[in-house]
Structure formats: structure tokens, C-alpha cells
Amino acid sequence: MILIVGAGLAGLSTAYHLEGIPYRLYERESEVGGLCRSYRKDGFTFDYTGHLLHFRQPPIKALVEQLLADKLRKHDRKSFIYSHRTYTEYPFQVNIHGLPPEVVRECVMGFITTLLHPAAVSAPKDHSFKQWIMENLGEGIAKHFMIPFNEKLWKVSLDELTSDWVSWLVPKPELKDVINGALGIKDKAFGYNPSFLYPASGGISILPESFLPHITGVTTSIELLEVDTKRRLARFQDRRRGTTITEHYESLVSTIPIPELVRRCLDMPTYLKAAAEELRWVSVYNLNMAVAREQVSDKHWLYFPEPEFPFYRVGFPMNFSPSLGRPGCSSMYVEISHRPTEHQSVDQLTAQARAGLEQVGILRPSDDIVVSDAKDLHYAYVYFDHHRVRAIPAILSELERRGIYSIGRYGRWEHTSMEDAIGQGRHLAERLRMEQDQALSA
Predict the structure, then answer these.
(1) How crowded is residue 157: how many other Cβ atoms within 10 Å of its Cβ?
(2) Residues 6 or more apart from 322 whose CB is under 8 A from it?
(3) Cα-Cα-Cα-Cα dihedral sign, residues 256, 257, 259, 260
């Protein structure tokens, strides 16, 4: 029996691809999806912050398009950065036209300096994130966007973070791209998501829900309490009935955050338990708002690097799909990062967000906010730091030795997309099927 803990995309994909091998899939919440979920409030549909589909893996793209048939719509990205009282297109490093001339000069000259004096070649894990920014993008781009934006998001000095996760998210442009961006010349899309797919209706939750007709053995409101890894026993609590369930497993697939999993493994080595407890992350308030006025913005999402704005990103779901809101209204999600131990009320968050949105001109003092609802995403973005470099391989290796496979964004403690989570489930299921076939033929 294979036990799967967590019915987010990685867990659902694992179950989908096991193809006849017995399994049970347990989910702590009352519905599947993990953070890839939507909810309705007062006639509006909100996701648990922005979830947009873009693909690099043809097999996963084909699977999603098969599961969702004609339910997806393609959008060309309309994403901008607000700084120096103006909007420039995202990504910043190739779209600096329109900023004050002295800012443009600093950014161009700083980037040219990185080409004239390239950094010594060394392993990415040896570079801090700040060092990577300075060496690859230059002092001007660092000063005017990359450092203030990322320090607002991560809530730590970028010297504390490594750069081994950056390359696919923040590609280094060529000189002609930076020059074209400074002159306002657009001859190509840039970045990993120049276009994206999003459901025509229903929000992103229709993606995880699309797996359900193809899998069995899914039980919600069941929480993992503890794992005896030597005897391969897992104990769960039924949150509806208040009863406990004990299951024997041959393999356990976990998609819950690594610190939560290791904490529940009774007999893991003490030093690995300590290492898991020292992993770090940043939390995010996902403040979902609706306003009784149409088209407060024509953008998909905006970035705010400057410290006077409490949020680092604001998105507009009704621009992904009009079906997500009520006629005559606009909806938005506002993202404010915070340390996991710090907490604010919905009223406090709404007041901060409104003040910032009025300052930038998205909201007006006369606007009537008809919905304001906050979701605290406790595990939002994991820290790639020097401790993670040492701890995660050792933890994953020991878990696997005990028949536990930890996958997904928080299961592998990494930065991954929805596509990656589905792909990890697929690859693990194929591996488990192969191992079972080999065991049966031995």
C-alpha cells in the first residue's frame, strides 16, 4: 500500500499516475488543491493568491490541456512595475524606458560594467543572492529594483540567501536587450512567462479538481499525526469525527512542508530533526479585495519595490476572467510578506493596503470596498540559504531510506511551479511502479 499525504497538485498527480497500484490519499483540509485553490465570497471568486499556468514540459502541458479540455484561455502578460511614480513593464532589467534619465543611466552603465568586469566563475551555491544580482545585473538595476523588491519580499538581507535557485526565474539579459529596453524598443518577449493560461471560469481550483474523476481513494479532513518509520506505520486523525486511523505502508509519499513531516517522524535521527527545525521561510498575507467600481486597473499584476508601499505585488483576478467577479466591480489580490511569527488583523491589513493603493492611484478615497478577506499563507516562499544547502539533501536521503518520498514545493523545500509539482508526482509514480514491477518479477 502506498500512502499519499497531501492532495495538492503533487499528491494528486502521484495518485493519477500510479495506474492500478493500491494507494490511499489523505488531505488535511476539507477540499483538495493545497494552495492551488479558489474560494467564493460575496459573489467573487478568489484564488489563494496568483496561480497562472505556463509550461516548459510538453508532457505536463498535454496532460493539463487534456484534463481541462477547452476550459483554459491564453493571455499575453500585462505585468508592470511601479517605481519613481511611473509604470514600466516587467521584467525591470529590459524595460527601464520612461524612468528618470539618471536612473536609466545608472542601470545601463551598471549592466555594462558586469560585462567589462565579469565575476570569477564559481558554483552558484557559493554566491549570495545579493552577489548574484550585482554580478549579473549591475549596481543600477540592483539599487532601483532587485534589492529593494526582494528585501521587501524575503524580509531578510539578500546576503543571507544563496543564488542556486535564481537562474530560471531571473534570466540575465543580453546587452542589446538592456539597450533596447532603455530606448523603448520592443522586439521580443522576455522572461519565463510572457504568456500564461488561466481557466475561463471557476478559478484555479478547477485544475486540482480535474484530477478527481480519474483517481480513487481520496479522503479529506484527515491529518497526519505521526509516523513510525521503522515499522512503517502512519497515524492520522479524522478531523470530522475526532477518531484516529493507523495505516501500514510500503511507501509513503509526503507533500507537506519538510519541518512538519520530520516533526511527525518519531524515530528520525535527532540531528536531522534539529536541521529540519532550522529551515526558514517567509509567510505572505493574501488580502483579497473587491471594489464597487469597474476596471480599477487594466493590468494583470503589478510589482512595488519601494518601501512606502506595504505590498510587494498586487494582481487583478477579473482581468484573468470576468467570471470571477460581479458586474460593475473590480477584484484584486494584495500580497504582503511577513515573518512567520508576526501577525496582523484583516482590518490592519486592509487599512495599510487601501492607503498604499490610494497613494499609487489604483483606488480613490470615494471607492467602496465590498469585500476584504485575508488568507495567511504560513508557508509561502522557502529560503534558499546555506543551511538549506546542507540540510535538505541529508533529510531527503534519510527519509527515502525509510520509504518516505517528500515531493512538491514544500516537500522538497524549493521554488517550483504548478507544472513542476505535477511533474514531480508523475516521475515519482513512474519510479514506484517500476520498483513494484521489479519486486514482483524478482
Answers:
(1) 12
(2) none
(3) negative
The Cα 81–Cα 95 span in angstroms is 9
Residues 327 and 169: beta-carbon distance below 8 Å: no
Cα–Cα nearest to 128, from 142, 112, 115, 144: 142
Cell of 369: 470596498
Shortest CA distance to 73 belongs to which of 59, 53, 102?
53
DSSP-derived pairing of the beta strands 222-228 and 281-291: unpaired
Given the candidates 3.40.190.80, 3.30.470.20, 3.90.660.20, 3.30.1490.20, the CATH classification of the domain at 281-382 is: 3.90.660.20
The full set of domain ranges for the chain reads 2-37+203-279+384-441, 79-192, 281-382
Closest C-alpha to 351, from 374, 379, 324: 374
HSE value, Cβ hemisphere, 13 Å, CA-based, for 405: 22
Chain position carrying cell 498535454: 62
Q: What is the pLDDT along the chain (442 residues), one digit of tens a residue?
A: 999 999 999 999 999 999 889 999 999 999 999 999 999 999 999 999 989 998 989 999 999 999 998 999 999 999 999 999 999 999 999 999 999 999 999 999 999 999 998 876 555 557 899 999 999 999 999 999 999 999 999 999 999 999 988 866 677 889 999 999 999 998 776 766 688 999 999 999 999 999 999 999 899 999 999 999 999 999 999 999 999 999 999 999 999 999 999 999 999 999 999 999 999 999 999 999 999 999 999 999 999 999 999 999 999 999 999 999 999 999 999 999 999 999 999 999 999 999 999 999 999 999 999 999 999 999 999 999 999 999 999 999 999 999 999 999 999 999 989 999 999 999 999 999 988 877 777 6
Q: Does domain 79-192 have CATH number 1.10.10?
A: no
Tell me which residue has cell 485575508: 374
Contact 96, 107 (CB under 8 A): yes
Cα–Cα nearest to 119, from 104, 105, 138: 138
Round to whole Å and give the CA distance between 4 and 19.
Answer: 14
Q: Write down the CATH number for the domain with range 2-37+203-279+384-441.
A: 3.50.50.60
**Residue 414 is placed in which grid cell?**
524549493
pTM: 0.94
